Amino acid sequence: MSEFRRFLYLGFALLLAGCVEQPETDQNPPGILAPPVKQQQTAPQAAAPAPLVPRLGIAPIPQVAAGSQVALLLPLTGRQSAAATSVRDGFLTAYYSQPAATRPGLRIYDTGQMSITAALNQATQDGAGIIVGPLTREEVAAAAAYTGPRPPMLTLNALAGPASAGNALYQYALSPEDEVLTAFTQELNAAGGQLLDVGTYDSGSTDYAAAISQVLRINESEARDKRLESVLGTKLTFQPRRRGDVAFIFTPGQAQAERLLRPQLKFYFAGDVPAYATADAFEPDSNANQDLDGLIFPDAPWLLGGALVDGVRDATNAAWPTGGPRRNILFAFGFDAARLATALRALSQQSGSATSLAVDGLTGHLTIGPDGHVLRDLMWAQIRNGEPRLLN
Question: How far apart are the C-alpha atoms of 187 and 183, rounded to whole Å?
Fold first, then answer.
């Protein structure tokens, strides 16, 4: 789906839509070094910040046995370094929240300095019990094609098309379905709903009247008025009507386009129709979001709040003089990757099934499907007076 085209859908049933999130960058944490890790010339190590807190006051996840090794593969140098640094900081925050006595060993491999094959070879030789990463889709493709021996691997991106977890390859990504329309239609039909119409609009424009008139059939109402005037030979007092069989409107799009779209829907008599969007629709600006009042959308706990979020924010605010990562979703992504890796490593030691795993994280309630993809169950909120309010 082109990033310059968005879809406008109408239907009879609610679809729990996925979220599209854009990478953010953040300031690096204080440059304090962690306890020394043995260096190897063939595996460049990235310096890690000191523990942020001994433990976070959050529900524990299964602990990895002492002495086991975790390998983290990230492009900490090069054009992806800012995103990789945010992921690393989140990962280390979760890592250092574990009790020191049961905390696994950790080695960080810079894939900006070595090939994926070399990194996987070295991590395996170093005794990794689980590999987390790599980060970019190109790196994940290279890792998936790797045929040498390796431990279970949790990648930080996902490949297009079906996959199999039979080779202990788990894929964790923030990306939604590649084709939103197809996924939406399938879920809607499965729930007994019906897709009434689809309209497209150019998010680079500011006038979405043509698409709105089409799907709400405002143009048909206006055409009926013109026919009556032609038959009667007189000008009629007329107010267009929208179609009456719409249960809800789904409008995935960026925040700037949603702020324009929502008032235009109201202008065309659809202000009373429940409207749903993806997480892209929300940006934390209560003044700018006044026009979005009533919009319902799913998002990650990291952006909407909760007990786990409060604990992590308190810890990072204390550790970073500048206030920590704030709303950086890549930090939350790295934090959850560490918790997933710990839980997966514990399951492998217990010969458990990955599909039985469930982790409450900063990016959602996380489970793993039969194909090895990590599934995220998000929180739902509605914008009221420009601010998101959680829905029960």
Answer: 6
